[in-house]
Design goal:
164 residues, 2 domains, 3-stranded mixed beta sheet
């Protein structure tokens, strides 16, 4: 909020000094040019915080871009992609009603997804949803993950019941 107040104060000072400069000029034709210069200063004072904020965003984005592996198919890039896919799959599966936890692992091209429910669920729709999530996150329409469904009662620790 202090930044906005300082910005408004700067605008007011620029406008007041510009009007004072125009008022002190002796001839009308000079006042016209002074009005142009004052208008440019007012535009600069209005745009300066926006340009400064944009530069800060560009610097942050540039730093983030430098932190990512660039191009190629190196192991760092593949590991980053696999990590993002695991996160996306887990996030999608956790949107299912009753899901309390989800663990996603990948071994080569095989995906294993363990879904923990707080109540019994029919395995067919859950397996179909998880398979769709894996296909969507990986972009591989042929992906067929192994899905483990675990049901835990309220306050139960451990694995609970695993339906077949």
């Amino acid at each position: 909020m202090g930044e906005v107040a300082a910005w408004i104060r700067t605008l007011m000072v620029v406008v007041l000094l510009g009007n004072l400069a125009e008022w002190l000029l002796p001839r009308a034709d000079l006042r016209r040019y002074a009005g142009l210069v004052v208008g440019l200063f007012v535009l600069w004072a209005m745009a300066h915080p926006l340009v400064t904020a944009w530069d800060a965003v560009r610097v942050r984005l540039g730093a983030a871009r430098l932190a990512l592996p660039t191009g190629g198919t190196g192991p760092e890039r593949d590991a980053l992609i696999a990590q993002e896919e695991v996160g996306q799959i887990a996030a999608m599966v956790k949107t299912l009603p009753g899901v309390t936890d989800c663990t996603v692992t990948r071994s080569g091209s095989t995906w294993v997804v363990s879904v923990v429910f707080d109540r019994p669920e029919s395995p067919g729709p859950v397996r179909a949803f998880v398979a769709a999530a894996v296909r969507l996150a990986t972009g591989n329409p042929a992906a067929s993950p192994t899905v483990r469904i675990v049901t835990r009662g309220p306050g139960e620790e451990g694995m609970g019941h695993v339906p077949q």
